[in-house]
Write a structure and sequence with these properties.
The two termini are 38 Å apart. The longest helix has 22 residues. Strands 1, 2, 3, 5, 6, 8, 12, 13 and 15 form a nine-stranded antiparallel sheet that branches. A six-stranded mixed sheet has the order 4-7-14-9-10-11, with helices on one face. It is an alpha+beta fold and 296 residues long. It is built from seven helices and 15 strands. 32% of the residues are buried. Helix 1 packs across helix 3 and helix 2 packs antiparallel against helix 3. It is elongated and about 70 Å long.
Length: 296
């Protein structure tokens, strides 16, 4: 006899609501008596964000679904565009945690948008957004993205990822610096930039002399993590840093850093990529966006 089938449906539903999407899916396949409860809206609404109706109401295209389970897996497998295409939203399949990607146009990319000789905003057939940012030539590469922690899942470690491709003849992208921090509105912008550049310079100088590898640094209460990143394969002299990897969607990504989102009350978290060593020319970078995604 199927023992689970002897439990009242309401009781089984209450149990499954306290499990995970993976557990509920398994219950639906291993027990005929539990399938109805495991597939119920009461179970799967618990795996959706509390504000999911408001989120999907901002979708550029209608979100069509027959039940909450179908909606859950649709949001896991097919990110939706929000706010006139400025953001994409999706869920992590294993746990329902929230993921956002900011479109290139919404990032703060120095000289992008008003100096077409340096950067160009154009469509790309593989991008989920209407535009990507194409780097023509700069000597100073600076890309920033920020998000309010209230938009993200609480009690979660998030990674910040630059999502990009390389053009036909990229150069100057072997090495850059990156950081993640909780912003402090009381800090003057120029003073902040000078402090960040100073820390980058000291870290780079330390690495060149000691070759001790990557050693993230924390600056004050902002929990700023500094790391070396490589958008192109580093040359033989580079011994440390994060190297870009391929994604399942045909793009590449490199982790700029990570942070812990406690209850979502930390305000705004910012991540930045900065490349200016030796003022070497840089070209061939195609930026789709920056993704804020839960880490395993």
């Amino acid at each position: 006899m199927d023992l689970l089938s002897t439990l009242p449906g309401e009781c089984l539903s209450e149990i499954l609501q306290r499990t995970s999407p993976a557990d509920a899916s398994r219950f639906a396949t291993v027990s005929k008596g539990s399938k109805s409860a495991a597939d119920s809206d009461a179970v799967w609404v618990r795996f959706l964000p509390e504000d999911w109706p408001e989120i999907i109401s901002r979708s550029v295209s209608p979100v069509v679904y027959a039940n909450n389970k179908e909606l859950y897996f649709s949001l896991c497998n097919s990110p939706i565009l929000l706010d006139a295409g400025k953001l994409s939203f999706s869920l992590e399949k294993r746990n329902g945690k929230i993921c956002y990607m900011m479109a290139a146009r919404e990032l703060e990319i120095i000289w992008c948008g008003n100096t077409p000789q340096y950067w160009d905003l154009r469509s790309h057939p593989d991008s989920r957004f209407s535009e990507v940012a194409l780097l023509k030539i700069v000597h100073w590469l600076e890309i920033r993205g920020a998000i309010n922690t209230r938009m993200l899942s609480s009690d979660t470690v998030y990674g910040c990822y630059l999502v990009f491709k390389l053009g036909r003849n990229p150069y100057g992208l072997q090495s850059a610096n990156a950081f993640v921090r909780f912003t402090n509105d009381e800090v003057d912008g120029d003073d902040e930039r000078a402090a960040i550049l100073g820390h980058f310079a000291r870290e780079n100088d330390r690495d060149r002399h000691s070759r001790t590898g990557e050693a993230p640094v924390r600056i004050g209460d902002g929990l700023t993590e500094i790391a070396k990143v490589h958008l192109q394969r580093p040359d033989g002299s580079e011994q440390s840093g994060r190297v870009a990897v391929g994604r399942g969607d045909g793009w590449m990504e490199v982790e700029l850093g990570s942070f812990y989102n406690d209850r979502g009350d930390d305000g705004v978290v910012e991540t930045m990529l900065l490349g200016r060593e030796g003022y070497q020319g840089k070209s061939g970078l195609i930026v789709q966006g920056i993704e804020f995604r839960p880490k395993s």
